[in-house]
From TrEMBL:
Record function comment: This is one of the proteins that bind and probably mediate the attachment of the 5S RNA into the large ribosomal subunit, where it forms part of the central protuberance.
GO molecular function: 5S rRNA binding; structural constituent of ribosome
One record GO biological process: translation
Protein name: Large ribosomal subunit protein uL18
Organism, scientific name: Novosphingobium fuchskuhlense
Annotated NCBIfam families: L18_bact (TIGR00060)
One cellular-component annotation, GO: cytosolic large ribosomal subunit
Keyword RNA-binding assigned: yes
Keywords, sorted A to Z: Ribonucleoprotein, Ribosomal protein, RNA-binding, rRNA-binding
Length: 116
């Protein structure tokens, strides 16, 4: 077995803890790259993505990788979750630390009605 990177070990640890306490709720998964930030609400039981949002907007100028862009993505994912009938989720930060853009996305999602 290959040695996992610190990021991958942290991601495994977070995901395992989430599965233990999710209670069947969908998972709000966040991915952060150097240029963009992405969020998906995933139903693990069915293996389906229920809602998604990102800073990469097709057909428009991308809003980039700033804290403001992350807050906009958090607002968008909360609105799309409401439209899909989802009010409570469990937050999956992956291997990313909970500060900066990831925290801005989570705070904006909470402010716009998503509970976690």
């Amino acid at each position: 077995m290959a040695k996992l990177s610190l990021f991958d070990r942290r991601r495994q640890r977070v995901r395992t803890a989430l599965k233990a306490r999710s209670g069947g709720r969908p998972r709000l998964s966040v991915h952060r790259s150097g240029r963009h930030i992405y969020a998906q609400i995933i139903d693990d039981a069915a293996g389906k993505t229920l809602a998604a949002a990102s800073s990469l907007v097709k057909g428009q100028k991308a809003i980039g990788a700033t804290v403001d862009a992350a807050a906009q993505v958090g607002k968008d994912i909360a609105e799309r979750a409401k439209a899909a009938g989802i009010t409570t989720v469990v937050f999956d930060r992956g291997g990313f630390l909970f500060h900066g853009r990831v925290k801005a996305l989570a705070d904006a999602a909470r402010e716009n009605g998503l509970e976690f």
